[in-house]
Amino acid sequence: MCGIVGYIGQKDTKKFLIDGLKELEYRGYDSAGIALLGCDSIEVFKAVGKLVNLEDKLNNNSTLNIQNSTFSTGIGHTRWATHGKPTEINAHPHLGNYSFVVHNGIIENYKELKTSLQANGVEFLSQTDTEVIVHLFEKHFEQTNDSAQAFKNTIKELHGAYAILLITKSEQNKIFFAKSGSPMIIGKNSDEMFFASSDAPLIGYANEVIYLEDGDFGEVTQDNISFYNEKKQIWNKLQTSKQLAQKNGFRFFMEKEIYEQSDVASDCMLGRIKDNGTNFDEIENSFFDNIFDIKICACGTSYHAGMVGSYLIERLGKMRCSIEIASEFRYKEPLLLKNTLFVVISQSGETADTLEALKMAKNAGLKTLAVCNVDNSSITRLADVTLLTRAGIEKGVASTKAFSTQTLVLWMLALYIGTKNKALSDTLIQNELHTLRAIPKALKIESIMHEKCKRLSKRYLHGHGFFFIGRDVFYPLALEGALKLKEISYLHAEGYPAGEMKHGPIALADPELFTIALMPQNLLYDKIKSNVEELSARDSTICSISALPFELADDFIQINTTNHYMLEFFEMLVALQLLSQEISIRLGNDVDMPRNLAKSVTVE
Can you list the domains of the chain with their CATH numbers? Predict the structure, then answer.
């Protein structure tokens, strides 16, 4: 997930680009760069790491007074690395012979395009998919001598998701733009035009905005927009509160991030789902050679995602998989065998216990793989392979979209392993791929569910605790639901395998014990129904989350009827997050910054 900005006008181009990138740095801080166009010249400045490094480079530039120069056009980018490591060469903007481009998204057919361009003598500098765009544009321009037609021809050849801004010396007072699958907004005032990936960079600069839709592309001058797809221009007034823009109108960052899960799920799967299976560019074909089993190690929410992954890897990958709590693993004198793949999961990439466990595995000579949200973090630098979740920054301390994207990556990895091992039928593979593609829709929040969670939250403010129960992958989901409630409401909650209730915990059952029962229609429904009936017979208050009404439930949160248990999994996840949030709000707690917790646990 990267951030892009663009400007055309007669004021301070550099200031808008830098201010805009500051607002978008949460979308990626592996590197940043800007390109400035004017007076027959293009200047580019890039820096690795956070935006302050780029600012320092600009401020220390003695050969060019950018602040007072006549650069009327500019584009900028802050990067979250997908193709190519975070280096200055891989940083955007990318250069052709006389043009620059910035891009958010993934060009799925970049390898084919790159091979074709190289065959025609084009030399590439970076490892990124983005660089093909600028070379493709210049190829078409040399054929047509028409920049507009060259851009049209370029977009026609691109497959994937993108938000693109391109500037060229052949058209000094224009910015070419295209949007498909990645966000982009055009803003204007009386004599300036702006681009940004979200509202926040435009506040204080633009008065009105157009929210681009997939398939929109065209060109912008200082006072005009031309849509090549003949889009009707509908301008919207821009809100004036930056705080509101950052939260997009939601009450809390956690709430915003719960609602973002549908979009980040799409980002997470982008380029990884193919016609006949899943694919990770990060994994070489030989990586799983001589690997006989997998050990997953993580803490907290990441541990719960890892537990879901362990079920799916054994079920779909047909490979033995165990799960360890990192803080315990380090001190149990674990047996580490060379044929084991060691997988660590961390949102921040700095989790101390997980990092130390990874070091143990590396020292023992194991192959290692990290599932992480932050590239260039300690864990990603140390692991042999990293699969980024692409969830974007989480400002709410209680993790939401990190969990959903970690689970998605592990599910895709399980399918990747099973396909590579030829352990799955074509029918099963296609069914899993079809279900994966449906996950963003399953994560879309229906207002009726959110309202139900708000109303139910009144019932669950008092009592002596909660049981969250489930079976199979719904057991770690129950653990995660209980953790969310504990983190932000400070109420006692336990996650349990539903079948274990009768082995002791059921002694606590009474009307003041609240049971949140995860009852998937497509997986072990009769078994969990029997377990819930046992609790109901002991007068526990039951809240059932299911597609099927349960006659003994005191409360019922209904999800959609589907044909796959993982669609139910993600709908139930949203319900658990919303219910925990609404209980916390009613108790008057700080949802985003719960007491005693930190976002990244960098101590043991």
Answer: 3-247 (3.60.20.10), 253-442 (3.40.50.10490), 447-567+576-586 (3.40.50.10490)
